[in-house]
Amino acid sequence: MKKENLLKYKVLNILTNSIKKYLESENQIELFPDLKIRIEYSRDEKFGDYSSSFALENKNSLGKSPQVIAEKIISLITTDSFIESVTFSQPGFINFRISPLSLTKYASEFRLGSDPFAKEEKTKKVLLEFVSANPTGPMNIVSARSAAYGDALANLISTLGHTVKREFYVNDYGNQVYLLGVAVLLRYKELNGETISFQEEESDAPVFQLVESNILPKESYRGEYIKDIAKRYSSDGSKKSSLDMKIKNKDWDSIIRELSLFAINYNLEGQKKDLDLFGVKFDEFFSERSLHDAGEVEKVPARLKESDKKTEEGKLFFLSTNYGDDKDRVILREDGRPTYLMADIAYHKNKYDRGFEEIIDIWGPDHYGYIARLKGAIQSLGFGADSFRVLIAQQVNLIENKEKVKMSKRLGVFQTMTDLLSYLGKSARDVGRYFFLMRSSDAPLDFDLDLAKDESEKNPVFYIQYAYARICSIFRELGEVSGDPVFSDTDLEFLKSDERARLLFWTARFPEEVNDAAVSFEPHRLTNYLQSLSRSFTKFYSGKDNRIKEKSGREREILLQVCKSVQFNLREGLQLLGISAPERMSKEESK
Questions:
Q1: What are the helix (H) ranges across 480-591?
Q2: Sign of CA pseudo-dihedral 54, 60, 64, 67
Q3: Are 356 and 408 in contact (CB under 8 A)?
């Protein structure tokens, strides 16, 4: 389907042509050299399906009242079989109502077509990197939000015709990884009967000295999960025997590097398990270490523009202020060690080298300041600024008994994605994903644990799933839909009631709702739509005049056709969000 064939854009085209005629008739077309018209869904459905505030927004520049402007524009619109009516409403809106026959045509065509979604004219190879949680520990709640957001976004972008690959960047290189190995070593020694202590203030004492003294460095890791890693390592007899010998010989560096690698793999294994439970599959887990091993990181300085570099006090700076950053950034320390930024530049260069034309990263809430420097580096490498985009998955507040749950390292208190999935139980995937997608990702989210555990229709994801299951029950009882899916003028009498007409409009909106969610990178638009569609269906379902099993002939066929389209939308919409569409639920009903 072409974008211009979506209902909203057909209305927009009709309106734009009429406004151009009006401006030309008033000799005011030159006031709008770049005429861009906005059209929205009507805020009050009694006025119509779509509306435009052009007359209200331009009353001053056109020197007339909104009503005079709007009525003149309306007079230039020729209604046909597509548009049922065009009206004016205060304080200055032009309202369109689509004919029921057009709505039924759209609803059936995209349901029965080979692909219901609008495609971009130029398709791209897109790399979407998300989650990329630090492998030095379990994933946190924000990582879970990023997982739901990234996976749903990849599905939506794919509807536009783009090829989308999902990638998880594994930060398995550097000092923090080394300190993880130190923590595992100290916990291993503790596991074998030695007493360890915790450094409370940083000092210049060498790491090996602290290890020999059984002191866990202040900047290392102290979570309980470190003990689990040490226990897992100890469970392998051959590994334990080899490690004990190395400890006896005080081969600390070799030990720490070995334990670091083991811990990274252990943590990554747990992260993959959580992601699998959450229904998130990555095409690639890309290792940062592989970039260092291949010498790609050390090549970065030579690849940046000469005008974007300077050396000062033995450090190499990337002049990121050339690209809007608040200060220039060190990429190579005085001792020759690369900074994280330098490795990140190499990683993004690698993304383009693999043939991706558009790069999208989803980062956590504390990374806003990092955007300008990396975006600048990408331009310095010779790639377009528009080819790289960063989206932010904001903070998550867990709410229980109407109070914020305090995050803590104490056992029994929510901290990790594993905690959340365990708490939500068998519905973790559906409920978790939906709740994370209910709001815009760039705004903090209050995750209501009590509502998430509620298995009634008060829970918004179950509300949608119950609606879908009820439709399935209708077809189980009455048989599959039959008859002509395209209605005629004689069928209009069966579509006049408010419940039927509004359900039909909500059903026909599906392709454009998906398109809007995809192009805006906002999956929450789709969750809102599915909620509204389900409400419209429930209102229809509850109407005494809509008891399908009591109907016969063409009226039954029409109602079944409408239900079939709603069923299609709910199933496809939930699938795009990565949420299941169960055909049977405990509270399903029949009509």
A1: 498-508, 510-519, 524-542, 553-577
A2: positive
A3: no
